[in-house]
Amino acid sequence: MTTPPVDATTTPAWGELHTHYQEFRGDLRGWFAADPGRAERLSHTAGDLFVDLSKNLVTDETLELLVRLAHEVNLPERIEAMFTGEHINVTEDRAVLHTALRRAPGTEPRLVVDGQDVDADVARELEKMSAFAEQVRSGEWTGVTAKPVRTVVNIGIGGSDLGPVMVYEALKPYLKEGLEVRFVSNIDPTDVAQKTADLDPETTLFIVASKTFGTLETLTNARLARAWLWERLIAAGAIDDDDDAKQAAVRAHFVAVSTALDKVEAFGIDPANAFGFWDWVGGRYSVDSTIGTSLAIAFGPDAFRELLAGFRTIDEHFRTQPFESNVPVLMGLLNVWYTNFLGAHTHAVLPYAQQLSRFPAYLQQLTMESNGKSVRWDGSPVTTQTGEVFWGEPGTNGQHAFYQLIHQGTRLIPADFIAVATPAYPLTDVEGDGKAVQPGADVHELFLANFFAQTKALAFGKTADEVRAEGTPEEIVPARVFSGNRPTTSIMAPALTPSVVGQLVALYEHITFVQGVVWGIDSFDQWGVELGKKLALEIAPAVSGDDAALEAQDSSTAALIRYYRTHRG
């Protein structure tokens, strides 16, 4: 059994942080004016990531106390426990070893956990996945009519969807010409219907991603996809309408990411074409496992290994760097500071990179499924607020939507701004508008000017006197004042390469872990998603017309079901 959590609120550091908070007055303008070295001192490098923490609402004393808190809740020991395979996922009695998915080949000593040679198992599945990806990319793997694959459809949900689709969008400039990947996740039939509507069944490959091969949404969509394949192939005259032809089509057009080989085979997929992963890989931590099969096909095994190398770079930084300069540790502790002392409820992630458009959605599962807990890992109630609502959209879209609330609203919203120096598509506005945009303007530079301006505006604001100096009528001066002291972290990288994407994901994985340790919670189970799924199965008969099941419902649920049954077209 793992050791009980330390109650952070009983530590000396927490008490000193509370006293510090009571005397705390954020003053980013004053701090920067009085301390020319603040930006340099509070900026750090982790791999290819340059991380500027200087616009956060912290002093050197704040950071010193937060680092002490990390030691007092035994964060160093918890980090080692995770990396070495202790069963820190207590409620499921499992190790937590997503970091093992990206260990360098040949690392010594070898990682053996519960009698399992983890390194050998990971290497075997990676090689199997890579070989399959090369078959598809080269055209060696063909459909039932001997045509090569042009479209891959990944069917999964949660971590089997959010991770792959996020990385696919992020790395789309690396996509092999002639290939496309689509993602089906929602059980809403609209999703699978629209994603398959214009596809050629003879050149489509489906990947069914479900560890247990029992996820309701995924298996329902897989059956719908199988029915679509049969119907379209038969209509095209590509196969006969008989069981043998249908089964041959499934074997040629479906593979699985699962360890439930009996269920895979019962569906009609050849178990030899199933790629496995392990119970010590949580779904939201699985994009670097065979759950990324669609990515290995889209970008190639070499790019996938580069993605893994990026993860590994941050793993090593997290495991070895002193906390005073350890970026995931510091960012996790800052989130604790904002949540537990400054009263923040949400956290914005604002990528100034359109390719990272799905990154905030990915982080929603990573952070909120991990740390949305009200009991600690020993079953006792938490003693602090836990978790934040993560949200965001790419800049500059967000500037024209919700930045108003961040700049001038009454709520404190810490925000992470993410940008890259070199764009995938370096375009020039040849004509310009002759005013704000000069002819020949580098559009990425215009874009990043917004990135730099927003964090500056949030930090330093604009005073009433500065507004008046612009000639603003007195009656609207208050409306144009910006208070400043709105905290941001800026993260920059040279370019959005596979390695950098891996580094960004690992960064937030470890930020999430740090917060969970401070709060004493198990960040690796997700029992909160189970009750609704169980009730859905119980309610389904009532929806379908079972009056006895309907009468068993509460009055609100029953009324809603009756409305549905009356109005269903």
TrEMBL record:
Pathway: Carbohydrate degradation; glycolysis; D-glyceraldehyde 3-phosphate and glycerone phosphate from D-glucose: step 2/4; Carbohydrate biosynthesis; gluconeogenesis. One of its GO terms (biological process) is glucose 6-phosphate metabolic process. The active site is at E369, H400, K533. Its EC number is 5.3.1.9. Keywords: Cytoplasm, Gluconeogenesis, Glycolysis, Isomerase. GO terms for cellular component: cytosol. InterPro entries: G6P_Isomerase, G6P_Isomerase_C, Phosphoglucose_isomerase_CS, SIS_dom_sf, SIS_PGI_1, SIS_PGI_2. It catalyses: alpha-D-glucose 6-phosphate = beta-D-fructose 6-phosphate. GO terms for molecular function: carbohydrate derivative binding; glucose-6-phosphate isomerase activity; monosaccharide binding. It is found in: Cytoplasm. The keyword Membrane does not apply. Belongs to the GPI family. Catalyzes the reversible isomerization of glucose-6-phosphate to fructose-6-phosphate. This is Glucose-6-phosphate isomerase. It comes from Isoptericola variabilis (strain 225).
